[in-house]
Amino acid sequence: MSLRTSRPARAGQYLALLCYLVFLAFPFLWLISTAFKPARELGSLHPTWIPGSPTLENFRQAFDEQPLLRAAGNSLTVALSASLIAVVIATPMAYVMARQRSRLATAATGWVVVSQAFPFVLVIIPLFLVLKNLHLINSLLGLIMVYVVWSLPFALWMLVGYVRAVPAELEEAAAVDGAGRLRTLVSVTAPLLAPGIVATAMFAFITAWNEFFFALVLLKSPEKQTLPVILTHFLGAEGVADLGPLAAAAFLATIPSLVIFAIIQRRITGGMLAGAVKT
Fold first, then answer.
1. Which of the residue ranges 18-27, 176-185, 249-258 would you say has the lowest mean pLDDT?
2. Within 10 Å of residue 85's Cβ, how many Cβ atoms?
3. What phi and psi values does residue 101 have, to the nearest 5 degrees?
4. Which of 90, 2, 74, 105 is nearest to 222 (CA)?
5. Out of 105, 131, 147, 255, which could bridge 208 as a Cys pair, Cβ 3.0 to 4.6 Å?
6. Phi, psi of 226 (to 5 degrees)
7. How far apart are CA 155 and CA 165, in angstroms?
8. Residues 184, 164: Cα–Cα separation, whole Å
9. Residue 118: phi, psi to the nearest 5?
10. Which of helix, strand or coil describes residue 33?
11. Residue 74, Cβ neighbours under 10 Å: how many?
């Protein structure tokens, strides 16, 4: 009887999941379709899913009209630097917070979670003034510092969970064998944290790669602007979008995030399975 009732429920779950995936995939599929449509199809009153005459003209125009490669280089520099620095800072902090069961550690964890609810607009003015005093406005270094600070709470919160999944008994056994604290962290704990560190770094990378608001406010020189800001240049003075090149450029800008997210999914699964093993 329970088997009969579980099958319809399972079918309903799969149907709901399929509808959700279609809902999420619709914008991306429409973006791909638009990127390969010629101009006459983009202006059609009866749009179609599949381009009737696929073309690469939109991609050529996108590269001709805007410096996409330079902007992508700026985004890559900022995102890689911010993610690496955030992970280097967050890893030892997460270890201390996970291993030290105190009120201070609990309060710090709570503050990390609450800080994620702060909107960007709330901090942009004081942040702008601080960076202005440090002469870091219109600087990739200043933007990297902003991204590090903004992604650090999430990275810290994520790594705390991975550290807690590592059995403390392994460190105690290493200490009994004569290993010092530093050697224990490097030889025992760090290898077990590798999946979590990689996943956290990739999440921080995606956040910095896709971020738009801080880059728009802090970067003024065209040669220093990141890819999300450059995409706004495909909008005309009256808000009319050059739809074909814009879709092509947006599609190219989305590919790194999709690739990184696919890698993240595998790393997170590996980290969860590693953390579930008890010795």
1. 176-185
2. 18
3. -85, 85
4. 74
5. 147
6. -90, 175
7. 16
8. 16
9. -70, 130
10. helix
11. 22
